[in-house]
Amino acid sequence: MSDLARHASRLHTLPPSCGPVRLIAVDGHAGSGKSTLASRLAAALGDAPVLRLDDLATHEELFAWVDRLRDQVIGPLSRGESARYAPYDWTTRRFGPPRTLEPAPVVLIEGVGAGRRALRPFLARLWWMELGPAAAWERGRLRDGPALSAFWDGWTAAEERHFADDPSRPYADALVRQLPVGYEWLEGPRATAGANHSVTHGEPPAATY
Fold this sequence. Notes:
The structure is a single chain. This protein is of the alpha/beta class. It has a single domain (3-195), classed as Rossmann fold (3-Layer(aba) Sandwich). The protein has helices at 3-11, 34-44, 66-78, 133-144, 149-165, 189-193; strands at 22-27, 50-52, 83-85, 88-89, 94-95, 99-101, 106-110, 125-129, 174-178, 183-187. The strands form 3 sheets. The chain has a 6-stranded mixed sheet. The protein is globular and about 45 Å long. The two termini are 17 Å apart.
């Protein structure tokens, strides 16, 4: 079993956090590898549903999507119902046809701000991609090319403001570093502080994630 598969298998042992769902957040700076980790984790979980916060944000509301998330996703999942949300099309600048998100045993939510304070009460775990903003943003700019340079200028300023007001990393259960092959998993600030964890002395850190 791969390291990622071991971490994925442990998620099923967590208590549900949002109705019958174990909601797992993958947060970090734009360009840090959140989408890639979430996709690989979903596959390791047998195609677990993934909610990508890019589908809820808009050009005008980069971080003001909490009400949409609460009404369209968190509320239904907490009642054991299927969620329905309209993903935003970043090309046409309008919301598209609704998608369904089933209340599976494990549901992943990935994107900048996935670990914000309004969502943490509904999370079974919060994982933070451990890559600094400068390196992450440079990687994101290279990925998107010069055509989106102006968008990135506005995004980085908005992201800085968001994390200054509502940081996620201090509440992360695990810090995840993407390696040339695989990932390195470290105890997060929340796990180190002992919040909502009972870790036996000598137990390997991976068991807390």
